[in-house]
């Protein structure tokens, strides 16, 4: 979630910030309906502050990168996935070539892709947000998201919470400024802007 802040403000310490983590990484997930309600609660709190607030929901659309899942992770990786902790910089740098090589292999057709990008699903999700149709998004089940968007598409929960928050502050209009299924990054990428009207 820091990337938009870096681009908008030049750093994460340039404006007052309240980061809220919405789990879209691994089960157990809060349902999308509950995620929306959480966003709405945050939106009511924002309205009570009387301040002008920028709400950012950050996360990919369809994607399933070649990263370990708890079901088949070796014990040290499973321990990290369960207990978390900071990944040392050196360890992150060491992992990058392996992930990039897997991505290149998938793009070249040499490595099987577990779940290809789904631009049709991405556009469908974006169309729901543009229409302000949070009921349809909230009704999605985890299996639907995984089937249509991949394991990492659960990141739409951040979008859902953000739109839930915005919806508590009045009517809004959304414009999709950018959408591209970026194979090299293995993610459906979009930028949408919603403004109160």
Structure write-up:
The protein has 197 residues and is mainly α. Helices cover 47% and strands 11% of the residues. It has helices spanning 2-9, 32-49, 75-83, 89-107, 119-130, 134-139, 142-149, 156-167, and strands spanning 172-182, 187-196. A two-stranded antiparallel ribbon has the order 1-2. A hairpin with a 4-residue loop joins strand 1 (172-182) and strand 2. The radius of gyration is 18 Å and the shape is globular.
Taking the alpha carbons of the first and last residues, their distance comes to: 26 Å
- Provide the succession of SSEs: HHHHHHHHEE
| Total of helices | 8
Strand content: 5-15%
What does the oligomeric state look like here? single chain
Which class best fits the helix and strand makeup?
Answer: mainly alpha
Count of β-strands: 2
Low-confidence stretches: none
Strand order in the sheet with the most strands: 1-2
Radius of gyration: 18 Å
What average pLDDT do the residues reach?
90
Basic shape: globular
Helix content: 40-55%
Largest sheet: 2 strands, antiparallel
